[in-house]
From TrEMBL:
One of its GO terms (molecular function) is 5-oxoprolinase (ATP-hydrolyzing) activity. Residues 7-184 form the Hydantoinase/oxoprolinase N-terminal domain. Residues 205-490 form the Hydantoinase A/oxoprolinase domain. It comes from the Bacteria. It comes from Micromonospora profundi. One of its GO terms (biological process) is glutathione metabolic process. One of its GO terms (cellular component) is cytosol. Residues 506-673 form the Acetophenone carboxylase-like C-terminal domain. This is Hydantoinase/oxoprolinase family protein.
Amino acid sequence: MTRRPIRLAVDIGGTFVDAMELDTRTNRVRFRKAATTPARPADGVLAAITALGTDLSEVELFIHGTTLGLNAVLERRGGRTGIITNEGFRDIFLIGRGNVPSDHMYDFQYQRPESLVQRRFTAGVRGRLDYRGRVVEELDPESVRAAARTLVVDQQVTSIAICFLHSFLDPSHEREAARLIHEEFPDVSLSLSTDIVREYREYERTSTTVLEAYIRPIFERYVDELEAGLAERGFDGRFLIMRSGGGSMTSAVAKTAPTHTVLSGPAGGIVGAAYIASELGRDNVLTFDIGGTSLDACVIERGNPVAAYEAQLEHFPLLIPTYDIRTIGAGGGSIAWLDHGLLKVGPQSAGADPGPVCYGRGGTKPTVTDAAVVLGYMDPDRFLAGTMGLRDAEARAAIQEQLAEPLGLTVENAAAGVFDVLLARTVGAVRQITVERGHDPRQFALLAFGGAGPLLAPLLAREMGIGEVIVPFAPSGFSAWGMLSADIVNDFSRTVMATLDDADLTELDQLFKAVEAEAVASLVAQGVPAGEAVLERQFELRYLGQEHSLMVTVGRELDRDAVRAAFDETHRGRYGHTMGNPLQILNLRVRGIGRTDRPELQTRPRGDGDPSQALLNHRDAYDFGQHAVVPFAVYDRAALEPGDTFDGPALVDEGTSTTVVPSGQRVTVDDHGYLLVTLEEAA
């Protein structure tokens, strides 16, 4: 069978859907955007593909990143969910940890957000395991059936989370309960904690299972609807969905594990960033992704993105592998507003509907995008390559009336103030994942992407002393491009809870092999030949007596001294010191990887170093280097050649994104056509 030449990636953002096509015969990439359709997300995906004009019968691989699961929780649009657990423990999820978020530490009137599950939707059943997984009381089948009838018949739940105490050691009770419920109610969606995560901590495991059950019904409908829409248009290739922790999975697996997709959009950008960092020879990179509704930043250290194994969705913990992403509600659509005379930006967003004022779709509140238009950074006639005109007069009027006049400022200074506030919030977010974790941001390159990333990245570099900003091609679609290089991945874990000195290495090796067999079986089911599966082993460790843990990669041969040395080195790098305490193994983890072919980075012939052939015109814009409106040189990104160099103030326009270079900074075009923004003296 002849291999089909086209690979297609689609990423849904808060404002736009990005579609990226790769022709593997020529390595040519094409990119288009369409408006996000919150009411029917699949429509926006299909609209972006239509705008791209891809022949879906030629597509071998379709890979997708979506925030549908995340939005379902934020907007409370998930399925009606119930919980079945052990008798006497039905309130585990409702009580939680009883902690107060740090940003509400001194708020004595703080109230936790409403739970996803009301108490009447929870039920306890007879049956119990002890802390070693031994049966204390056999599971009572009639108790399980009665609980299911109460939830399904009386309370009309459509999805049930099953989570028993200590079941991570022995899943048999959960599986038997699921079998009994399925016999009586075959149409009810069931989520078992041991199918999702085999780790200790009852509340976190219950929360993860509840979120899975809450998201699954609408996620399954969405994927089914999208699959049907693609099939109608001639697609019958492989359908993959991005994972929050990098890599991808088949759509069939995603429907049974939708929590792994909640941060899949940002993950695509980080996968692409790690690939770019490797190809450009940059070991340490900060990713800087600003879309329509949020700003996401992540550290790539020694070529690898920093990973975490617990995320937070609202205030609910989620035990899934994910990249350690710092997210704040500040994007192009973030609303600028006054709070008792103080200018604030976000977290509220104008989203895709109605969007910023300049979109002319009914938006009335000024946003970051409106400020960018007022400051002269965006050409109203060239937005989205000229397919969507912007209404600059309306944007100016909104900022004038709602911000400038109340603050007693000119409209340009008010718009500059919006960027100042956004920049201050951004510096705080980046410091959290660098300075507070022992990293010097000045030792990193800043990779800017997302529609608004290149707007702000040179300013952030200037503020934090970062020596280099890298702007890839089509930065507003970079997350979709990154998905094209994603491997097929699945993660598995087991709780150990033993000190390294006392653990039996032979037993640990056998446990690793058992978990690896699960990983290989999962990859084979997703089309990866068993012989091509790559397996990575890790220990999650901490000094005995500590709360927080660190990950250490281990080899095929387990060696206590090597594990200890690796942990001490990681701890010293993170916290600046080591301790003499024994090491405690919390969990062992296995990542199964099926490698995929990556898009090749093309090099282009070098020009003569003169960018004048790409100069479009000059336009007045606000220069943060001089804090004044001055003429900016405007360059066409597509006409720039490797070797071209020019100084700010300058704007580089590529239709779907604009790079803003203030005075004092210099742009050099590298051999791949990427923009490298540096300080003039450094350059």
